[in-house]
Specification:
This protein has 8 helices and 6 strands, in the order βββαββααβααααα. The strands form 2 sheets. A 4-stranded mixed β-sheet has the order 1-2-4-3. It has a two-stranded antiparallel sheet with strand order 5-6.
């Protein structure tokens, strides 16, 4: 069962004095690229969170965010009264003005507000951690659903390539005969007498260079292996990528050996189906 690397998970925790929103977004990437945004109070937990998210999501460009919205009267910021008073005094030395206006100016200056350092409440953090795990579960479900769509598309395109391969196999005898006739016609146009036995030997040798029997067998095997990999329990985008490289190699070899327009047309169609598989594979975990 394959998983997409594209996903989204969200969870909201309502506490007595604050609302905490957890969001996780992921896009495709060759490796794990995790960007974490959270209030400074939770920074000491970042390393353990990275390990948890990395283990769960494995790979992808991931944005993880914790947003905190205060819903109560509790605040950690206080007016630094001695500093503000000193600012007002200095402003009075510079200009005469209304106390209220001077206060508005003073509170904008550095250190006018002081923030007390908070310690993490472990019970609160456990509740947040539970919501993070819930968000991870949601993004995993999202990835799985996206993976099912990709899997259906892969199966359809592999079937298309297999059907085109059957058509290649069907016209192969016709292709060989066409090559034989073109060679014979070319010799006749030279109006030279040739030894028929020698000509047949050379003809067999030449045609053997265009034989695609091995490529047809290997391509069939690679297509079956791709489907087998799709049916495995693990999501293995990299493995599927390696198999598509082998599929592409055999299709290209058939194209280079075909020397026959109807077969080359089929090869172009196989390449088109394969390219669409490769594009979608970039998003598979």
């Amino acid at each position: 069962m394959i998983h997409s690397m594209t996903g989204y998970g969200k969870s909201v925790l309502q506490l007595p004095t604050k609302k905490i929103t957890i969001e996780i977004k992921s896009l495709n990437s060759k490796n794990l690229d995790l960007n974490a945004r959270m209030p400074s109070i939770y920074r000491e937990k970042e390393l353990s969170l990275r390990k948890l998210i990395g283990k769960q999501l494995e790979r992808g460009k991931i944005d993880f965010s914790i947003y905190v919205e205060s819903t109560g009267e509790e605040t950690t910021s206080e007016v630094n009264q001695p500093v503000v008073k000193q600012y007002i005094k200095q402003l009075k030395d510079v200009v005469d003005g209304d106390e209220t206006e001077l206060l508005k100016m003073a509170v904008r200056f550095p250190d006018a507000l002081s923030t007390a350092r908070e310690d993490i409440d472990e019970n609160e953090w456990q509740a947040i951690l539970d919501e993070i795990k819930a968000a991870l579960k949601r993004i995993d479900t999202y990835r799985l659903d996206e993976g099912k769509v990709l899997e259906a598309d892969f199966r359809n395109r592999v079937t298309n390539i297999d059907t085109l391969l059957e058509q290649v196999i069907a016209i192969d005898p016709e292709r060989i005969e066409n090559v034989r006739e073109r060679l014979r016609k070319g010799v006749e146009e030279l109006k030279e007498k040739v030894d028929e036995n020698r000509f047949e030997q050379e003809l067999v040798f030449y045609i053997e260079k265009f034989d695609i029997t091995e490529e047809k067998v290997r391509l069939k095997n690679h297509l079956e292996y791709f489907i087998k990999a799709l049916d495995s329990a693990d999501s293995n985008g990299k493995k599927l990528g390696f198999i598509t490289q082998e599929i592409g190699r055999e299709i290209n070899t058939i194209g280079s050996k075909s020397n026959y327009a109807p077969m080359q047309k089929l090869v172009v169609q196989m390449k088109d189906e394969l390219e669409k598989i490769k594009e979608q594979l970039l998003n598979v975990l």
